[in-house]
Design goal:
480 residues, alpha/beta, Aminopeptidase, 6-stranded mixed beta sheet, 5-stranded antiparallel beta sheet
Length: 480
């Protein structure tokens, strides 16, 4: 009898082990894939730009999705500032056992402006061709909104009870505008989104090199966003009497000097660890350059070679680039004013005012004024003292399940915390004391990053596998 009990115990142990492995590797069912794709298409075709779009329309559409899935009205909130009816956010809660404090999932519903004449396809039509989905927001980040929403709906329908509440907030004005949803929720309804830590789908993912997966990136810190305005003025005059004192010429000279300026090379604790782990994966000249770059002091020639790659350059330097121009008032008159917006992505530890002063020195022209642009578009002669947050320590609740899932779905690639070279709403959640990690299961190629650009797209298979990944990952995060 004792022997039979032993074999019975072994049998159930094996069944449990196989079940757990299946839970970690099983893809989302086809119904969930179809649901995620349907939500994805719906969101792409709702214009949520700052100029003419409505985030509220997208938030209401998602709220209805959750109602249809059986979420009670009390667990669905559509709310935002009374000053702008187009900028409401949606917050949904899946209740857990309460064993641990909640986890907050965040994603923005707004997208960058897109003009039809710039694109091959209509940016606000969801189009599948040649193995890709096209449309504004396909990679930044309505794909993530659809994946997170479909995952919660699947969990609700299955009757899954997580160890902690799962809160999903899909919000306005991450890409610009004056009604940032995450900031507004923290200031006005902290109780709705208060969490132990945050998972942001707006970053991270499987980095590939010409289609071959190289690493799973987790954004554990990010650069600071800043806009600066350069203004040149002149008395002007008749265009038949050109003079070298010309506001457009002055501005062009200032922008040229900025374009040729290289901010100092920098590594922080996250980016140094990121490159140290890359050394083991790299080959040839890149491997040698990484080793030389990591020396103290770094080899300047190695840094220069690595900086030719846009991703490496942006990771190791503050970058500033002109993004908008305006000037002149008539075709037959000398310009009285010329103005440019310069967008900067700033390495952690530097304030916005520090960068404004640096730009002023680089421009080196008293005829060109350098000002800081606030989120409300007000121009300030003195920049803010705001700077990037201290990177949060890795949490086992996030990285332990992530390591296991990546090992099964993408065998052989490492999980590497790194720094986002852009910026996200994580700047608000981290500042509010909620450690934030950007995690995604979608694959993207280092040479085909189209977010904010023409013909934005994401791979059909990458999206499907991202759906598969997120369900298993979120279960791993909330299982115990």
């Amino acid at each position: 009898m004792g022997s039979q009990k032993w074999w019975l115990a072994l049998f159930f142990c094996l069944v449990f082990t196989v079940s757990m492995q299946a839970q970690q590797t099983a893809p989302a069912d086809e119904a969930t894939r179809r649901l995620a794709l349907d939500i994805f298409k719906q969101l792409i075709e709702i214009n949520t730009t700052d100029s003419v779009g409505s985030v509220t329309a997208a938030a209401e559409a998602m709220a209805q999705r959750f109602r249809d899935a059986g979420f009670p009205e009390s667990d669905i909130q559509v709310l935002g500032p009374s000053s702008n009816d187009r900028k409401k956010n949606v917050v949904v809660r899946l209740h857990g056992s309460g064993k641990h404090k909640p986890v907050l999932l965040i994603g923005h519903l707004d997208v960058v402006e897109a003009r039809r004449e710039d694109w091959t396809t209509d940016p606000f039509q969801f189009i599948e061709k040649d193995g890709y989905y096209y449309g504004r927001g396909t990679s930044d980040m309505k794909d993530g909104d659809a994946i997170m929403s479909a995952t919660l709906i699947r969990m609700k329908k299955e009757g899954y009870v997580p160890s902690r509440d799962i809160i999903l907030a899909m919000t306005a004005d991450e890409e610009g505008g004056t009604s940032n949803g995450v900031d507004w929720l923290i200031k006005n309804h902290r109780e709705l989104i208060d969490a132990e830590f945050v998972l942001n789908h707006d970053g991270g993912g499987v980095l590939a090199d010409h289609g071959k997966p190289v690493m799973m990136e987790v954004n554990a810190t990010e650069k600071l966003y800043g806009d600066f305005v350069l203004t040149a003025t002149n008395p002007g005059g008749h265009s038949s009497l050109p003079r070298p004192e010309n506001a457009i010429y002055e501005l062009a000279g200032a922008l040229t000097r900025i374009a040729h300026y290289q901010f100092p090379f920098e590594l922080n604790n996250i980016t140094r660890a990121y490159y140290e782990r890359q050394v083991k994966m790299a080959t040839g000249q890149r491997a040698a350059d990484l080793v030389a770059m990591l020396k103290n002091p770094p080899d300047v020639e190695a840094v220069a070679r690595l900086s030719k790659d846009p991703l490496d350059n942006s990771t190791t330097h503050t970058t500033c680039v002109a993004t908008r121009l305006s000037g002149g008032h008539a075709n037959n008159a000398l310009p009285q004013m010329a103005q440019a917006n310069v967008n900067c992505r700033i390495e952690p530890g530097h304030t916005l005012e520090e960068i404004r002063l640096t730009l002023e020195k680089v421009v080196a022209d008293p005829k060109v004024k350098v000002q800081f642009r606030e989120n409300n578009n007000a121009l300030m002669d003195h920049g803010s003292d705001r700077h990037s947050y201290v990177p949060p320590a890795p949490r086992k609740e996030v990285f332990e399940p992530l390591d296991k899932i990546v090992a099964k779905m993408w065998p052989g690639i490492p999980v590497l915390p790194n720094m986002s070279t852009g910026a996200s709403d994580g700047v608000y959640t981290n500042a509010a004391g909620m450690p934030t990690y950007c995690v995604s299961g979608e694959q993207y190629d280092r040479d085909d990053i189209r977010a904010h650009g023409k013909d934005e797209r994401t791979g059909v298979e990458a999206f499907a596998r991202g759906v598969d990944f997120y369900y298993v990952f979120l279960k791993g995060v909330t299982a115990e």
